[in-house]
Design brief:
Elements lengths: L7 E5 L4 H12 L3 E6 L2 H13 L4 E5 L5 H15 L4 E4 L15 H29 L2 E6 L12 H21 L4 E7 L6 H8 L1 H6 L1 H8 L6 H12 L10 E3 L4 H6 L1 H6 L16
Parallel strand pairs: 1-2, 1-4, 2-3, 4-5, 5-6, 6-7
Helix pairs in contact: 1-2, 1-9, 3-4, 4-5
């Protein structure tokens, strides 16, 4: 049975949707949880929900693009809850839809900065402290465009592909020290982000496939990713560190296939079908 008793988890983007479910699941399995996001009201609601279930949680409003603010916030989390065992980077932005020449350049870059730079900032603070203790797990959420093209969603896709490669690099840097990094794709979940894609004029114009997917019945419950991440935090999938796990995965099947995935170097960003120039 999954147990996170006597651990500390930090969940970014934890004020609603997938992030709220991740925070709730961490707490239900025994972790003390710090919930981070920019909107104080939402993360305070998440912390209150955890408290009503008998768990321990604190809310910290922070802009993850602000490096100094991230450093101070995580320092305060450690002071109040203790050393961080699990970091979940769930925060995300996807507001720039359309061909790049039609996208607002500032919105496009905001998506990159929030998603990728925000993940860099939290990992940069947490990983050294985990290495000093010889243990820790980091989970970075990826998504659409991570391994394939995402027409009219280039900023989001580029950031998520970047997070995937960043996760691989981070894991290869820290795994010998007992700190493991994972990527998780939650699947298509109905969230505030997808609502913007569905109902904004730009979304309806440039991303009609999202509506079609929902019409076809594809709507992954956020609990799928949250349960998976709880298992990752508990160590169930340690052999798959540096690789991508998915909310839609059957976790029992995934566990049975771990050795095969590693052997065939699956669930990773790889260039295939061409001869690579050796430098």
């Amino acid at each position: 049975m999954t147990s996170l008793q006597d651990t500390v988890a930090v969940v970014t983007g934890g004020g609603r949707g997938i992030g709220r479910e991740i925070a709730l699941h961490q707490a239900r399995f025994g972790a003390r949880v710090a919930v981070l996001a920019r909107t104080a009201r939402e993360i305070e609601e998440t912390a209150a929900l955890i408290a009503t279930e008998g768990g321990t949680a604190i809310a910290r409003a922070v802009d993850l693009v602000d490096r100094a603010a991230v450093e101070e916030t995580l320092k305060s989390v450690v002071a109040e809850l203790g050393p961080i065992d699990t970091l979940v980077n769930n925060h995300g932005s996807f507001r720039a839809f359309g061909p790049i020449w039609e996208c607002d350049p500032e919105l496009w870059w905001d998506d990159i900065e929030i998603n990728l730079r925000g993940t860099f900032h939290t990992c940069r603070v947490v990983a050294p402290a985990m290495l000093a203790r010889g243990r820790g797990r980091i989970v970075n959420l990826v998504g659409g465009g991570t391994g394939t093209s995402f027409p009219n969603g280039s900023g989001y896709a580029s950031s998520k592909a970047g997070i995937m490669r960043f996760t691989e690099c981070l894991n290869d840097t820290t795994k010998e020290g007992g700190v493991l990094a994972f990527a998780v794709d939650p699947g298509l979940v109905r969230t505030a982000m997808t609502e913007l894609q569905l109902y904004s004029e730009a979304g309806k114009t440039h991303l009609p496939a999202i509506q079609q997917l929902f019409d076809d019945g594809i709507n992954v419950p956020p609990t799928r990713a949250a349960s998976l991440i709880a298992d990752i935090a508990a160590g169930r999938f340690d052999p798959l560190a540096g690789r991508m796990l998915c909310g839609v995965d059957d976790r029992d099947v995934l566990e049975r296939d771990m050795a095969g995935i590693v052997e065939r170097d699956g669930r990773a960003l790889r260039v295939t079908g061409m001869d690579m120039v050796k430098l």
